[in-house]
Predict the 3D structure of the following.
Amino acid sequence: MSGHPSTYEPKYAATKWLDHRLPIIRMGADFMTFPSPRNLNYWYTFGGILTLCLVSQIITGIILAMHYVPHTELAFESVQRIRRDVPFGWLLQPMHAVGASMFFFAVYVHMFRGLYYGSYKAPREVLWIIGCLIYLVMMATGFLGYTLPWGQMSFWGATVITGFFGAVPVVGESLQQWLLGGYAVDNATLNRFFALHYLLPFVIAALVGVHVWALHHVGQNNPIGITPKTKKDTLSFHPYYTVKDAFAVVVFLLIFAFFLFYQPDALGHADNYIEADALKTPPHIVPEWYFLPFYAILRAVPDKLAGILLMLGAIAVLFVLPWLDTSKVRSMRFRPVARGFFWIFLFFCFILGWCGAETPDNMVPFLSVGDKGLNFTWLSRIATFYYFAYFVIILPILGLVEKPKDRPESITKAILGDSSHGAAVPAE
Amino acid sequence: MSDTQVTDAHGEAIDDDKRDFIFIATGAAAAAGAVSLGWPLVAQMGKAADTLAAGSIEINLANVAEGQQLKMLWRGVPVFVRHRTPAEIAEAENTDISKCPDPQTDNERLVAKPDGTIDPRFLVMVGVCTHFGCIPVGEAGDYDGWYCPCHGSHYDTSGRIRKGPAPKNMTIPDYEYISDTVIKVG
């Protein structure tokens, strides 16, 4: 699996016997000693954090499935029963719901990390694309899971999202009704959503396996984007990065625990405590926070099909990013101009999230006086334009015209400086 | 290839054409089998017989007072029965439909009774926004008809889309008058 020569030596007769037949201990040992760039910072701990999130979601999810009833008459009640009556249900259900938010928080940090340090560039294109696939399946899983508690937001969110398929020319309506299993979101829909919500996390787990495989084949990127040249440029994964990851996990769990124990509903929506009602749409439908930027892009255009295509395009553009960014320099540390545009990009992603949470016709505070000025529709149009411009205009052109800063020869030189001779220890 | 005949381990001549045929025939049979087995796996997700059967409801229009709107659940979606006021009817009829995104006259959106007359008071339609399926709020919006809170589509007093992202007028379901005051939807 890994691309470095194996150093594992089986010590006992039994492990030698097993190593001949199935070198599974060797695989684990090679994984633990994988040479990682010595300059990885804390932004590189989110892979480990995400693995933890996936495991936590699968475990709590399987437990919830033991108590949940996927039926329109009983689903809402069964979730409330889990929270009130099932032993430790008060802990496990919010752990799953808050966990979904934490999972997306971590994946966004992980993705922006990749964008900043150029982790999508050769030879990591396939690694990046698998990551995008994981994100896509995560979005599907998150959406399906949000439907299950059968609250008002669950129901109407499902109605709006499945409505996207209705916009497909000619076959749209048949396709939508095939997905729903009826004329509208109903029991058939809830049942299949539950089945698929149970399935997809295992698809994610498989994709994560391939993601890590690709990572170990090409090696990790690092904050300066210079490929390790000698053994001195790397450190063994264990204990150096297992300990670093563990510390990051502890800090991450502190944030997780804050939401779990003090604000379990802060990341959700109050309307989801009202049971689904097919006759009444909530006055203001919003998706979960992690979908808000895409929701804003969807609403930025007045045309149904165009809105959907633009929203899908916002994700699709990530898949082709390795070929849109023409710069050979990976890390933004050495790209002063691109770095500025990156921070503006991040800023507009937050703006899109804000727009997605607001009513389109409302005026933007500070940027409007009374009816005059900017409303949220126009703000989301500006932000949507920048979102796409960053990928299809700015990055392709910058790579050709920007003059990058001088890069160090190696990771060791970057850390210890040119005067030093590698192994020097700072005098103190 | 050479002219010399290729033979198998038993010294028998190999007939390449025959082998190709067997190969293609086997593949075709396997593909047909996969498709015929695959289809049920896909089709099971469609509407079940009981879903299709729960098809029609009867509504007594006499129970709907002027200015009132009845909301009935039909096939999992709401049906609006609106008893329109004379002002609303006039507004619906006197609209310049050439400017509508989905032009339809008010009469085209009503169903005639068996005797051929049209009662413009009762507007019957599927109360689902043609954008993403939310339920519009009545007596609201810039055209005094319906307003969809989800993405801001405005419908007029005939249920026609006038402003906003929805592409079409609200749908008129299949219905008929089975007496002077009772309709059957579906």
